[in-house]
Amino acid sequence: MTAPLPAAPERGFAEAELVQRTQRAQALMREAGFDLLLLTTEPEVRYFSGFLTPFWQSPTRPWFLLVPRAGKPVAVIPEIGGACMARTWLDDIRTWPAPRPDDDGVSLLTEAIRELAGDAATVGLPMGHESHLRMPLADFQRLRERLPGLDVADATPLVRRLRMVKSDAEVAKIAHVATLVSDAFDQAPRLFRVGMPLVEAFRAFKTACLGLGVDDVPYLVGGAGPGGYDDIISPPGERPLADGDVLMLDTGCTFDGYFCDFDRNFAIGDTSDAARRAYDTLYRATEAGLAAVRPGAACREVHRAMRAVLEADGGATGNVGRFGHGLGMQLTEWPSHAAFDTTVIEPGMVLTLEPAMAYGDGRMMVHEENLVVRDDGPELLTRRAPRALPRIG
Amino acid sequence: MTAPLPAAPERGFAEAELVQRTQRAQALMREAGFDLLLLTTEPEVRYFSGFLTPFWQSPTRPWFLLVPRAGKPVAVIPEIGGACMARTWLDDIRTWPAPRPDDDGVSLLTEAIRELAGDAATVGLPMGHESHLRMPLADFQRLRERLPGLDVADATPLVRRLRMVKSDAEVAKIAHVATLVSDAFDQAPRLFRVGMPLVEAFRAFKTACLGLGVDDVPYLVGGAGPGGYDDIISPPGERPLADGDVLMLDTGCTFDGYFCDFDRNFAIGDTSDAARRAYDTLYRATEAGLAAVRPGAACREVHRAMRAVLEADGGATGNVGRFGHGLGMQLTEWPSHAAFDTTVIEPGMVLTLEPAMAYGDGRMMVHEENLVVRDDGPELLTRRAPRALPRIG
């Protein structure tokens, strides 16, 4: 790899941005009647602190961040994270020598909650859709027993509202990684060839992404098969790519902890008319989605616009359950382009458009782009997929 | 990359192994008085079904696996996973069109629990140390409300007991990836050089690991600094490697969903005597750990053996909280080499030895090997680190 890497946005965030996130949260906490936010998952802790580490891969230790009604968040974390957290804008960092199974932060957390909000506080905790509690359930029950006067309320709407609209700095990171991966997909004719086992095609693509400057390739799925693939979430097997295959790769690569999430389809040599027609339908469905994305529109309208194209072409809509979603610190985030989602689109949202369809004899196809919503509509962050199914070999 | 990749073990598991895991769980369920196991996290679902997908990266959809007292596990999963799950040995796969926030599998799960175990069953759910519940907490509360007669008990000891002892097929996967990463570390003199920003050193290492045949590099942390590093969980920065640095990389790479987890230290040119002494202490502490690992010994004895070397050398023991742990489907698993852990070591356990120490002016050093326990003691899966701090440049 001798070509210079594209200029990357600065890593991290200005303190002013972290302050602003916290103050916006505190304004919403007042509206919701929360005395405190209790956060346990990686993106939430990072959102308010700036704390970025792959160490969350280890499930051993819980991490806690408390956002009080005023002032800076307070970290209650394992000792091993103390030095890294001390480099953030936080001042109040409380650590314990984790792992310590008989009291893995519970006493320290109890004390911190009591000190910051009292014994009878209302604590906002994300408990709703697309959330989970990242601590042992038994420890959470212990916390409730220690603080029986605590009222625990769902903070998902609050966190969702904040995180769905990205700052310019966040958008820049996503845009950067989407550009790098667009470049990697442009290398497809050099990366993939007939006879190559799918697992090696994946390896070549991951290596190309790293070579172009992404930090990591946490997510790569795909499929290949004659005239199409039938599954989009399996890891790659040893079957070699063959003439007539449709190959799809769908990747979430990261830069500075922010994801892109999009896929590309390729015909290996000559493939079926059905596959080319499916591609054309999905391309036009995506165009319809792009036309529907604007501030003030609801996500379900975007879904309806894409679905109308699929239905007009007689396509079944596959099993993905939605036609796109938000993205950012996570591969998938709220909202969903789905019939159930009435979220109103706002400038600064970063969204995927991801129509999927079933066709032929158990085949399916997906097509995906990433965009940021601007005042006047969508701005693509991915380099738009070719108009017709591109051919390799 | 033109050299042939080392022969890899077969992917996946024989059905007989999945049957045996399930039957062993069912025997332990009878002992514990559980009518059903409810599993929500990736390693647990995979352990019993063989279901492997990176799709868990997306936090949007919950997945459930139920292990009844007899017969095959039952999957209650999003439609998008149906095709992939149908390739496993399971027969009973129930899907819903997720995401569906107002009923994201809760009704289907309620019905399945009722059908398999009745309204007043005792359900084992991992709730203890190193576990979490991977579904929205509000949905879990809804489930409890729908099935008020359910007794939910902690299944952590059961899952832990099963997963801690690895099968030959599991060990082969870990051994393979540990060998590949040992090969990658052997390339260090070609990969790293003075003037290279740490982030580029990480990129070069990840690319080397992929080139040698690992599937993914989900975890890479490390540090570099004059005479040592002070933090082992931060992502790499732009600071160039300099003469006199100690460089450390600690990686969890995967093959077929199984991790290795070890690190290596390098001196960039001349570094401090203190760093060389710390390395020597940690090398000898690891030797003491290797001597202490044998079937019948407790993890805390292994910890004590390593600690004794550090203390004899006057080293502070750092902030990692333990001197190693189990590994397998996760980067870190039970048990812990720590004073609190009385787990008795058994043949088939795959463990790290990971003594850490603080030295000098806020510096720390870690040293890590991976091993499998055999009848007569430990068998290293990693190529043992050099006896003295290796020098680059």
Give the beta-strand count of chain A: 18
Strand fraction of chain A equals 15-25%
Low-confidence stretches of chain A: none
Please state the structural category of chain A.
alpha+beta
> Can you list the strand order of the major beta sheet of chain A?
4-3-2-1-5-6
Largest interface summary: A-B, 77 and 77 residues
**Whole-angstrom Rg of chain A:** 23 Å
- Average pLDDT taken over every residue of chain A: 95
The major β-sheet of chain A equals: 6 strands, mixed
How much helical structure, as a percent, in the residues of chain A? 25-40%
Distance from first to last alpha carbon of chain A: 24 Å
Protein architecture, described:
The structure is a homodimer of 393-residue chains. By secondary structure, chain A is α+β, with helices and mostly antiparallel strands. In chain A, 34% of the residues lie in helices and 22% in strands. The first copy, chain A, has eleven helices and 18 strands. The interface between A and B is large, with 77 and 77 residues.
